[in-house]
Structure to design on (789 residues):
């Protein structure tokens, strides 16, 4: 397939995944800010800014980290690329670019999301209706996935699209876990109940709360959460789950001489597949995640070099 | 709903001259009379939402990015009887065949010039003539694989060819989507009438494009200027329907006079390019050096015969206003047949007898510059002042070769939903004619309608809309 089309599909899927994870993060942060003692609110609300690396930019144009400012910035702000508004716009632009490779169901699901997003932006979103908007974003994301699974041919277009999803997802899981686990550990020293909520927040942000309950029961402890989100192969947003998909997708993609991304991905996958919680504890969760992020970004870059490298 | 009857002296597609409904339209009239305004208004809204969701929008140049607009879609179809279509189809085949013969001739043997049918100056001095196409052998001698022929129905009830579009005619996706929309909104209408299908157009197009190359299984691509082009939707639509890649100039490159596309597994050779770019933009080395849309070296690859362009380079000379009057003569010259479709009578002021006629009848005629475009330097006789007529009289005498003249035409009308209800509006018709191993077309074409009362301008950039076009399989229903 065309390299440019592969690139657009890859980015289209990344953006859609990003829209969903940003909605989940923001949703959890706003809820946590309600539970928290007042002086901690700012810290809770900062999480989505830290994950998307936009805290400084936010503070340049907004006065104070308040729920409404956060909603305006991360959902609606036209001037800023990290807003869901612009993320969906980018997804739709990429989809438009590869319209010839998409089924009409997939195209329409994305185009419809963009049309409704503009409508939402015109009407505005407040703290009181934010939840329904988060629901909407999740639904649109499910719909896109459903349309893609239900109607796309299992060819390289589909493989590159899924690669985009899992690279983005692996990065998000690693970032969220890295930032939130520090907050949870701190809470554990001060306040046991607070710590419970913090760990719940980690799991909810990554849609893994029910998975944790099923696996470990009600006992929330730091290493088990980390184990679930890193090592469990069957959790959709775990690093292991993402890497298994990435490695297998790269095996399926028709490949010329390009071996780089396969090599990098298999090596990282082996590392996780054969890893255990003692190794992570030994290295320290933060160090482990920073190392993981470096390597997953390298894989993302190498995929683009191997298959989409014609552009510029 | 009430249907406003048409003005006198015009041909109406629904009513005959005594305001009786034409037999082939009775079913349509029943439907209109039995539909209430609320239902229709609801269906119109539904159509708008669907077109938005499908993304069937077009960009107006100069407007904000993202200001995607819908082309107004009118719910009342335009009906063409089976016998009318039979004549049209035969006539279109004949016309396109002659045009292809003409293009081959003027780039090879110049028979028509030698025979004195058309003057050498009118062919070779035409700015659209591409000397680089001389003696280039094209598969099946085909130049114009996809033609869009604009027709109007005059008050005498006959169809006239207004213009041949032989470069990159567009609009076929609207023909297809309009049909899909009608079937979705009013399925019951189709159960009572035998409307000829158009849905197989992409298959025929794919067949035509593959036949443009002599290779057994050629790689075909659609070349688009990109997603900011007003017809981008159509390019993507056709590529998807045919299952071929939609490429931009930057996706292609030329090496050793072969064209390749940049794929995830390396270069892949391209055999046929269905290009939706004008000649001048195809290759910055041969045409406009500032073109960012084309492919450097494409022209050389084309000249070597390693790639086929559809349509060929240099077809523009055959759809030029100054060549148009000769199409009936081409049919007689190449095919030895009488033309089936009428041309709008055209007086060429370069000929002394024509000039005399034009000068004598100036207040009834439309005078156009032979090389002009876009309605500049034009005189509309019936609307002109005495002074304007006098100015043109002296212009015509001074430079007769620069002008042609035609009678003022009346476009037929068809009932259309407008703010005041259902009223007659003017329309035209663009069928799409495909030339490959044989000449094929789907029944009908794109019907464009001028939504302003009395307006004759059907262009979508100026507020024109479209309708579904129904060719009946059988007139006895």
């Amino acid at each position: 397939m065309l390299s440019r089309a592969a690139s657009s599909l890859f980015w289209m899927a990344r953006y859609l995944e990003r829209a969903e994870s940003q909605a989940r993060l923001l949703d959890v942060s706003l809820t946590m800010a309600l539970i928290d003692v007042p002086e901690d609110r700012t810290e809770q609300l900062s999480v989505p800014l830290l994950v998307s690396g936009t805290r400084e930019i936010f503070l340049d144009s907004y006065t104070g980290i308040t729920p409404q400012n956060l909603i305006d910035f991360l959902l609606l702000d036209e001037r800023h690329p990290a807003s869901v508004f612009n993320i969906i716009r980018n997804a739709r632009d990429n989809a438009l670019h590869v319209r010839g490779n998409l089924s009409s169901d997939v195209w329409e699901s994305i185009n419809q999301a963009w049309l409704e997003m503009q409508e939402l932006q015109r009407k505005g979103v407040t703290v009181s209706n934010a939840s329904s908007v988060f629901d909407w974003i999740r639904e649109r994301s499910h719909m896109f996935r459903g349309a893609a699974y239900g109607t796309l041919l299992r060819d390289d277009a589909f493989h590159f699209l899924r690669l985009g999803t899992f690279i983005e997802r692996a990065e998000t899981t690693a970032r969220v876990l890295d930032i939130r686990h520090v907050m949870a550990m701190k809470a554990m020293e001060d306040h046991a109940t607070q710590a419970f909520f913090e760990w719940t927040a980690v799991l909810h942000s990554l849609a893994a709360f029910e998975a944790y309950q099923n696996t470990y029961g009600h006992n929330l402890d730091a290493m088990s959460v980390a184990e679930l989100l890193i090592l469990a192969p069957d959790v959709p947003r775990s690093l292991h789950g993402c890497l298994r998909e990435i490695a297998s997708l790269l095996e399926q993609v028709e490949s010329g001489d390009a071996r780089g991304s396969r090599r990098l991905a298999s090596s990282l996958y082996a590392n996780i597949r054969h890893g255990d919680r003692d190794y992570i504890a030994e290295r320290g969760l933060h160090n482990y995640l920073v190392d993981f992020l470096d390597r997953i970004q390298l894989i993302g870059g190498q995929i683009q070099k191997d298959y989409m490298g014609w552009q510029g | 709903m009430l249907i406003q009857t048409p003005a006198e002296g015009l041909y109406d597609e629904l009513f005959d001259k005594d305001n009786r409904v034409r037999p082939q339209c009775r079913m349509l009239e029943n439907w209109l009379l039995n539909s209430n305004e609320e239902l229709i208004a609801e269906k119109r809204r539904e159509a708008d939402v669907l077109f938005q969701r499908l993304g069937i929008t077009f960009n107006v140049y100069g407007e904000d990015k993202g200001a995607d607009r819908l082309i107004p879609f009118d719910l009342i179809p335009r009906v063409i009887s089976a016998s009318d279509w039979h004549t049209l189809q035969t006539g279109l085949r004949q016309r396109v065949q002659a045009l292809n013969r003409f293009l081959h001739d003027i780039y090879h043997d110049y028979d028509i010039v030698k025979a004195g049918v058309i003057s050498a100056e009118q062919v070779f001095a035409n700015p659209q003539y591409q000397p680089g196409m001389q003696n280039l052998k094209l598969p099946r001698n085909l130049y114009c694989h996809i033609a869009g022929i604009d027709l109007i129905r005059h008050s005498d009830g006959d169809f006239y060819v207004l213009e041949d579009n032989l470069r990159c005619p567009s609009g076929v996706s609207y023909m297809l989507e309009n049909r899909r929309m009608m079937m979705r909104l009013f399925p019951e209408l189709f159960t009572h009438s035998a409307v000829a299908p158009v849905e197989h157009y992409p298959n025929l197009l794919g067949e035509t494009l593959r036949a443009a190359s002599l290779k057994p299984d050629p790689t075909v691509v659609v070349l688009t200027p990109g997603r900011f082009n007003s017809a981008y939707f159509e390019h993507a639509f056709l590529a998807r329907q045919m299952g071929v890649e939609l490429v931009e100039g930057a996706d292609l490159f030329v090496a050793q006079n072969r064209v390749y596309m940049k794929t995830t597994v390396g270069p892949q050779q391209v055999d046929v390019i269905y290009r939706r770019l004008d000649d001048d933009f195809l290759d910055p080395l041969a045409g406009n050096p500032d073109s960012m849309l084309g492919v450097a070296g494409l022209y050389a690859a084309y000249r070597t015969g390693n790639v086929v362009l559809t349509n060929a380079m240099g077809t523009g000379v055959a759809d030029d206003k100054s060549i148009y009057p000769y199409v009936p003569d081409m049919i007689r010259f190449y095919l030895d047949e009488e033309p089936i479709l009428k041309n709008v009578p055209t007086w060429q002021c370069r000929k002394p007898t024509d000039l005399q006629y034009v000068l004598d009848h100036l207040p009834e005629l439309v005078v156009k510059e032979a090389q002009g475009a876009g309605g500049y330097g034009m005189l509309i006789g019936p609307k002109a002042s005495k002074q304007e007529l006098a100015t043109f009289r002296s212009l015509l005498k001074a430079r007769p070769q620069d002008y042609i003249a035609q009678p003022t035409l009346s476009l037929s009308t068809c009932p259309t939903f407008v703010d005041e209800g259902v009223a007659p509006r003017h329309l035209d018709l663009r069928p799409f004619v495909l030339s490959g191993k044989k000449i094929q077309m789907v029944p009908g074409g794109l019907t464009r309608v001028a939504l302003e009362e009395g307006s004759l301008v059907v262009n979508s950039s100026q507020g024109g809309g479209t309708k579904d076009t129904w060719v009946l399989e059988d007139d006895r229903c």
About this structure: Chain B has 13 helices and 21 strands. The first helix of chain B runs from residue 26 to 34.
